[in-house]
């Protein structure tokens, strides 16, 4: 318990260090601490898949952190400044690439489903939510220098890949990984337009993702989800609602950020990108509907002998 609480504290503190820093080295230190403190947490189950996931996660995050360090040294060399808002176009591009690798945004996303598949659902939740905050903060801080075209392209690519690749999956964690990639795509698109809107998108994403991951923690594959009806119909119904919300169906919360992002895009005259990103969210909505369908409307393949726990 002592080691566990130390790791959790370190994980929390490292994100806060990055968020509050104004110096590139301090931000980099925060990111490094963040990676190092989550590695034992991923490893905890001692399963070969967990070991593999930890190695992959470490390699990716270390590469990204090194790129950030390199970019910050180049910035200091060219401008004589270590403060985060001072960046040159070249270093901004290098930084953006590193942050995209950290966030698992397409086309640098291939590690993400692999890592999530090898770990427990709760650790996957931490990687999908808390671990996104620090890199996004760096994007916020360098917001005025970011290359809009590159970000829009990356956002669109993420939304498309997150939707398409998720269709082929049967494991709930992999599905959630691709869903996360698609949401990050929307988030990056919002970042080009309006940082305030990005905050709203991020908060909505955090809340709905936590609400989806927690009930799914018991189920490994999509068929397992169907067996959870005898345990608690209430949980199942709310899970279905959160899944629909993640997909962005109109009366639910998840629709709000998407609607606002589309409004911003169309008012900026980017109708083509708005249409494409909207079409890209349809495949992901399809696999949410499929999950909800398996959850509520079908019984497991055999007749269950389980007593209804909730009676």
Task: Describe, in short, the structure shown.
Helix content is 76%, strand content 0%.
Secondary-structure blueprint of this entry?
Blueprint: H1 2-20, H2 24-43, H3 48-79, H4 89-103, H5 111-117, H6 121-128, H7 130-141, H8 148-166, H9 172-193, H10 195-216, H11 222-226, H12 233-247, H13 255-267, H14 271-296
Q: What is the total tally of β strands?
A: 0
Mean pLDDT: 90
Order of helices and strands: HHHHHHHHHHHHHH
Please give the largest β-sheet.
none
Family: Belongs to the complex I subunit 2 family.
Protein name: NADH-ubiquinone oxidoreductase chain 2
Membrane topology: Multi-pass membrane protein
Transmembrane segments: 24-43, 55-77, 92-112, 148-167, 174-193, 199-217, 229-249, 269-289
Description:
Residues 21-281 form the NADH:quinone oxidoreductase/Mrp antiporter transmembrane domain. This protein is mostly helical. Helix 8 runs antiparallel to helix 9 (172-193) and helix 13 (255-267) packs antiparallel against helix 14 (271-296). It has helices spanning 2-20, 24-43, 48-79, 89-103, 111-117, 121-128, 130-141, 148-166, 172-193, 195-216, 222-226, 233-247, 255-267, 271-296.
Key words describing this protein structure:
76% helix, mainly alpha
């Amino acid at each position: 318990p002592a080691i566990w609480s130390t790791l959790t504290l370190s994980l929390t503190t490292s994100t806060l260090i990055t968020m509050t820093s104004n110096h590139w080295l301090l931000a980099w230190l925060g990111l490094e601490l963040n990676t190092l403190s989550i590695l034992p947490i991923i490893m905890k189950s001692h399963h070969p898949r967990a070991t593999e996931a930890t190695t992959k996660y470490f390699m990716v995050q270390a590469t990204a952190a090194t790129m950030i360090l390199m970019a910050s040294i180049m910035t200091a060399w060219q401008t004589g400044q270590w403060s985060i808002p001072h960046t040159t176009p070249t270093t901004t591009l290098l930084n953006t690439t590193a942050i995209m690798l950290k966030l698992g945004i397409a086309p640098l996303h291939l590690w993400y489903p692999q890592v999530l598949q090898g770990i427990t659902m709760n650790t996957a939740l931490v990687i999908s939510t808390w671990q996104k905050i620090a890199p996004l903060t760096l994007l916020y801080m360098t917001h005025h220098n970011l290359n809009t075209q590159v970000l829009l392209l990356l956002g669109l690519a993420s939304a498309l890949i997150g939707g398409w690749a998720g269709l082929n999956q049967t494991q709930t964690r992999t599905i959630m990984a691709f869903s996360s990639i698609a949401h990050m795509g929307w988030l990056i698109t919002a970042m080009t337009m309006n940082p305030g809107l990005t905050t709203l998108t991020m908060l909505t994403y955090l809340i709905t993702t936590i609400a989806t991951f927690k009930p799914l923690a018991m189920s490994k594959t999509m068929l397992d989800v169907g067996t959870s009806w005898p345990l608690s119909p209430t949980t199942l119904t709310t899970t279905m609602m959160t899944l629909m919300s993640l997909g962005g169906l109109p009366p639910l919360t998840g629709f709000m950020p998407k609607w606002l992002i589309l409004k911003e895009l169309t008012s900026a005259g980017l109708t083509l990108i708005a249409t494409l990103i909207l079409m890209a969210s349809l495949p992901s909505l399809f696999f949410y509907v499929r999950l909800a369908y398996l959850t509520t409307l079908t019984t497991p393949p055999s007749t269950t002998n389980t007593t209804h726990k909730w009676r």
